[in-house]
Amino acid sequence: MENYEHNLKLYNESIRKDLDITLTSIIPTQKNLMKTILWLNSSIIGLLIASLSKGIFIGYIAIPFIFSFLAILTILFALKDGRIKAFGTPNISDIQDIAQDENEKVMGLIQMNNSYKIAFDNNEKLIKKRAKKIALATNKTIVSFISIPILLIVFYCNSNLMKGGKPMAENDSQKPTARPTMSSATSKPAAMMSTNNIGNKSFIINAKDSKATISKSADKPSSSQDSKKGK
Questions:
Q1: Chain segment 119-169, per-residue pLDDT in tens
Q2: Are 110 and 8 in contact, with CB atoms under 8 Å apart?
Q3: Dist. CA 134–CA 29, nearest whole Å
């Protein structure tokens, strides 16, 4: 009987330590991790919303926004699962119902061990359920983080391509404005051509006058010859 009682004490110490670890270490660590995931995804969503005021198209931020939003929802459901935790304290009524005999001490240890085991199993289920949701939310957060620089690179390349095409159009539109500078150079040949045309016209007029004088001089002897023939 003493050996059995000794074994019950060993089991009681072991299960109590495991229960203490789950209550004081594992569950608080999960809660802190969930808070970190909430903070990260909330910051991402805030930055994405702020980027809309910078002129970034909503299609570039859709993927990280959706995954961060889903991660926040997953964490909220995980927090909802952990509202009830078991501490392993047996009901006082169960202790009072133990028969007062030579096995009273052993039955008390058995009752405590059963309460610790039930509490540990409930907390273990909670930890496993939360761990799955935390892992899912972590994966969504990673996807959101990875997609942000990729989408920023795509946006940067597209904006540079669009900006690179604008100066070409502006240069093309500015080319005709540079042409009037040639008019100053071409105005001189135009003036020279006009003066040449004027010179040609004057030359033609002088030629016509010379022809008229020649024709008049040629007509004068004929009239003198006619006068001689009349005589």
A1: 999 999 999 999 999 999 999 999 999 998 888 888 778 777 766 555 444
A2: yes
A3: 11
